[in-house]
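Structure tokens please, single chain.
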Amino acid sequence: MYVPATNRFEDRTAQIAFMRKHPFATLVSVVDGVPFATQLPLTVREPGERVSVRGHLARANPQAGALDGQPALAVFSGPHAYVSPGHYEAVQNVPTWNYLAVHALGTASTMAANDVPGHEALLAELIAAVEPGYQAQWDGLPERYRAGKLRGIVGFEVQATRLEGKAKPSQNRTAAERTRIANALATSDDAAARETGRLMLQAAARTAR
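Here you go.
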């Protein structure tokens, strides 16, 4: 990922917190010699000093059969917003886009189709992350139904060898311009823009302390 010095987002704890807050990611790998992407929810683990992301693909998805042992990239995206040059002090300016993102790069491994305990544990992680109360409902479903659902997925893990983060909340603008942009975004009709503005205002408040 291209990350100019002013946009570096390198704090590992903050990166992992961001990934967990925005778990719906894009998994990218190569299938038949071309890039292939799937949007899906992922969980983040920290076994020791390592970081890994885990999830599952539909068994019918071509990516599932070509993932084991291959390089993979998980892209976690957060709030984002268009920034009009009308917020800047000088006329000679162009539009841009503010956003936050973290990329997890590593090698993927997939679970064997008959690894029922492994797939159950994988689903339990995801359920705990997004809707803990659903676990009791899942456990109470007929075993035949659950087994059928498990046969239809391929669990995987990407052992991240590198985390790359990028934060672009107008750091290169003046304090007055940043405040103007943040206030405009925070009152936008667009939910993603409002969240971007809120994060900018929070960052400004921390800096002012």
